[in-house]
Amino acid sequence: MTRASAYHKDFKRRLTRFLKGFPSNTTSWAQATDELPTVYVEMSDGGTRFPPVGKISCKTPSEWNTKYKAAIWKAFKQMSDHDLERIDRHYEGRFK
């Protein structure tokens, strides 16, 4: 098992903070926006690395946030520092 780089650890910390803005126990669709799927698609190479979650499979806002956050973490775990840097550049510091 490879040790995570300092950059990978830092990105994980920033991603954790970003994802806290999307509560898993939400009851409001206003807190279950298209932002999570957008980030997921970018992190999973346009949805080719992992299949998208899709709104049809999510019956509640809570399920939407929970499934997409899990999918984002799955993609994150397989990303190289180079991939993460690309995401950082694409989102211009959103994960600060």
Q: How would you summarize what this structure contains?
A:
The protein is mostly helical and 96 residues long. Helix content is 52%, strand content 0%.
Describe the structure.
The protein is about 50% helix and about 0% strand. The chain has helices spanning about 5-20, 35-45, 60-75, 80-90. With about 100 residues, it is mainly α. The chain has a domain at about 10-25 and about 30-45 and about 55-90. The protein starts with 5 loop residues before the first helix and ends in a 6-residue tail after the last helix. The longest helix has 17 residues, at about 60-75. The protein is built from 4 helices and no strands. The model has no long low-confidence stretch (mean pLDDT about 85).
What structural class is derived from the secondary structure elements? mainly alpha
Tell me the span between the first and last alpha carbons: 28 Å
SSE string, helices as H and strands as E = HHHH
- Determine the number of helices (DSSP H or I, runs of at least 4 residues): 4
Overall body shape: globular
